[in-house]
Specification:
The structure holds two protein chains of two kinds. By secondary structure, chain A is mainly β. Chain A has strands at about 5, 10-15, 20-25, 30-35, 45-50, 55, 65-70, 75-80, 85-95, 105-110, 110-115. The relative contact order of chain A is 0.33. The chains are: A mainly beta, B mainly beta.
């Protein structure tokens, strides 16, 4: 009965490859996110979807493309992987958040540890 | 300069000690302040949530926000080895749809 799940947990790949990470939440939340956590533990938002609509798109290389087939799933596809993409990628979800709402608790998945060789 | 600054530690204290974790920030538009706890190889989990200035207590944890100084704190009383984790402060603007800015985290170790 995992709330936010991600696959795979570990991903080791060569530079230049294309890979995908999948995320699913069973909390009934409307909003989902992708975060990147670097080796210094700095956690930075990449994308956010609300009901399959992109609402946050930070300055991320266009090699990264999120896809939300439905509001329970948010996948992340990465093209032409680079060494600097090595990090832990976290998916999160929260209840519907409007521009004036504040108290949206975000529930994080266990993370996907990506290593690019 | 980062929007949110947090001492990375590591911070090591004996069991039972009072722990004080802090963050400073530069953007006065932040209204919502959070503390997340992250165990090794796990995702962050929300620990405390406060709105604007003031204190909030939950069991052994107290969160303080001083907006005039742009300074937030998390106090842990009677610290336990199970409190050993990385603590991330986080904050967001009232008008921003869900975008949370995180500090870089403080690694805390409680010695038995």
């Amino acid at each position: 009965d995992t709330a936010v799940s991600q696959t795979p947990k570990y991903l080791v790949t060569q530079m230049g490859n294309d890979k995908s990470i999948k995320c699913e939440q069973n909390l009934g939340h409307d909003t989902m996110y992708w975060y990147k956590q670097d080796s210094k533990k700095f956690l930075k938002i990449m994308f956010s979807y609300n009901n399959k609509e992109l609402i946050i798109n930070e300055t991320v290389p266009n090699r990264f493309s999120p896809k939300s087939p439905d509001k329970a799933h948010l996948n992340l596809h990465i093209n032409s992987l680079e060494l600097g993409d090595s990090a832990v990628y976290f998916c999160a979800s929260s209840q519907l958040s409007t521009p004036t709402s504040g108290s949206d608790t975000q529930y994080f998945g266990p993370g996907t540890r990506l290593t690019v060789l | 300069q980062k929007e949110v600054e947090q001492d990375p530690g590591p911070l090591s204290v004996p069991e039972g000690a009072i722990v004080s974790l802090n963050c400073t920030y530069s953007n006065s538009a932040f209204q919502y302040f959070m503390w997340y706890r992250q165990y090794s190889r796990k995702g962050p989990e929300l620990l405390m949530y406060t709105y604007s200035s003031g204190n909030k207590e939950d069991g052994r944890f107290t969160a303080q926000v001083d907006k005039s100084s742009k300074y937030i704190s998390l106090f842990i009383r009677d610290s336990q080895p199970s409190d050993s984790a990385t603590y991330l402060c986080a904050m967001k603007r009232y008008s921003s749809a869900s975008k949370i800015i995180f500090g870089s985290g403080t690694r805390l170790s409680i010695r038995p």
